[in-house]
């Protein structure tokens, strides 16, 4: 298991020792594209491996002008990416499954991005229906444990029951804790030793050791301690005497 953490400011590049970082691009707020370019350059210059995670740039957009704008943005990020992109699953109006047109648009965009770099699909928009969404597309997936918990899904049970075909596709895990309102969301809190998300990670890593766990914790000052916690988990899971 490799360990990483999320960054959204150039000053956070190299702030903690890790195997990789995730550059998050929220579009509506946070770093703009020029700052993303600078963070990517700092990572490359520092020998730091990284993925890029666009959050609000929709792959399934079907309106011609917004679709062209989104595609231009996503292709720029794909060209910048080192290890690849992590994108969200997407939904239709009211949170429903994508329409046939929307699903086709998502697939077309995904194919164009994958011509430049690997792209992994994360559960975020409709986590309760994520197995269906993952089944629509090939390639790797990103399991977000905090999103399962915030969707009232037992993350430990989910990691135990995740179909082997999906487990084989897991490249990344987003890990953070559900702990009540957190600026309009329920998760992205720092981990604790006894939190469900950490226990769920242990279950998944036993099933698929070759993955990268990426901390998505809003409190950057807590990242160092959380990375140490994950490092201890990695050490214990790597012990051949572990039952």
Helix/strand layout:
Blueprint: E1 2-7, E2 20-25, H1 33-45, E3 49-54, H2 64-80, E4 84-88, H3 100-114, E5 119-122, H4 130-136, E6 141-144, H5 145-150, H6 155-161, H7 164-167, E7 170-175, H8 196-207, E8 212-215, H9 223-237
Parallel strand pairs: 1-2, 1-8, 2-3, 3-4, 4-5, 5-6, 6-7, 7-8
Helix pairs in contact: 2-3, 6-8
Describe this structure in words.
This protein is α/β, with parallel strands linked by helices and 243 residues long. Strands 1-2-3-4-5-6-7-8 form an 8-stranded parallel beta barrel, surrounded by 5 helices. 40% of the residues lie in helices and 17% in strands. The chain contains 9 helices and 8 strands. α8 (196-207) links the parallel β7 and β8.
In short:
The protein has helices spanning 33-45, 64-80, 100-114, 130-136, 145-150, 155-161, 164-167, 196-207, 223-237, and strands at 2-7, 20-25, 49-54, 84-88, 119-122, 141-144, 170-175, 212-215.
Name some characteristics of this structure.
single chain; about 240 residues; eight-stranded parallel barrel
Overall radius of gyration? 17 Å
User: Major sheet: order of its strands?
Assistant: 1-2-3-4-5-6-7-8
Helix percentage range: 25-40%
Structural class computed from helices and strand pairing: alpha/beta
Number of beta strands: 8
User: How far do the termini sit from each other?
Assistant: 18 Å
Oligomer: single chain
Low-confidence stretches: none
The helix/strand series, from N terminus to C terminus, equals: EEHEHEHEHEHHHEHEH
Strand content: 15-25%
Which sheet architecture does the biggest sheet show? 8 strands, parallel, barrel
Number of helices: 9
- The best one-word shape is globular
What's the pLDDT, averaged over the residues?
95
